[in-house]
Amino acid sequence: MRSVTTPRSSWCRRLVVALVPILAVFMGCKGSDASPEPLPPLARSDAPAAQCGETGHPDCPTQLWMKSTLQAYLRPRNFERLEGSLRALGARAPNGYAGWQEMAAAGAAAAAVADEAGVRNSCKACHDNHRAAFRQQDRAIALF
Ligand code: HEC
Q1: Which of 15, 46, 48, 139 maximizes the CB count within 10 A of its CB?
Q2: CA of 93 to the centre of ligand 1 (A)
């Protein structure tokens, strides 16, 4: 009996003895902070935010708000809701976008008198002036 168990346990011990240095080297490598490797791109803190609005990613906050309020209210010509939403948009003007508040206010005033062309002018004015820059610089921020 002993002659069977002894060789097996010594084989086991040899395996452990062989594995310990390998494990030690492996863990030593993983634990080293001195590695000059650059951080992988996903570790950048702005990576997830910068991807909103792109294919396969959720809409950005303002983009989603535009679709679910202004666009949704303009289609059925819900001027009352358009007026309120455009006023809210004007009140949330981000820094660095000249005339944002005024363009939104002009749209709200047009909505108050059910002037669809006037409302659309305000959409177009702000989009023409600011949409591209906003998308490039600030689209990850939530205005609401
Ligand atoms: C004061 C500025 C401003 C006004 C007024 C405005 N928008 Fe926008 N809109 C923006 C900005 C900025 C974006 C870009 C948001 C983004 O892509 O992150 C945008 C984006 C949108 C989008 C998203 C398009 C897409 O799928 O990427 C829709 C839809 C939209 N606006 C509809 C409207 C409508 C309809 C009106 C008028 C009733 C309107 N907007 C008025 C600033 C404005």
Answers
A1: 139
A2: 13
Q: What is the pLDDT of residue 44?
A: 39
Q: Please, what's the b/e burial string for 89-104 (b: 16 or more CB within 10 A of its CB; e: otherwise)?
A: bbeebeeebeebeebb
In a domain, 47, yes or no: no
Q: Report which ligand 1 atom has the smallest distance to the Cα of 85.
A: 38
| Domain of residue 100, residue span | 52-137
Is 126 a domain residue? yes
Residue nearest to ligand 1 atom 6, measured at CA: 123
pLDDT mean over 17-37: 51
**Cα torsion through 111, 112, 118, 123, rounded to 10:** -40
User: 15 in a domain, yes or no?
Assistant: no
How many domains would you assign to the chain?
1
Question: pTM for this one?
Answer: 0.74
Radius of gyration of the chain (CA): 31
Q: What is the reported pLDDT for 43?
A: 41
Place of tokens 């004007």: 90
Which residue's CA is minimally distant from atom 43 of ligand 1? 126
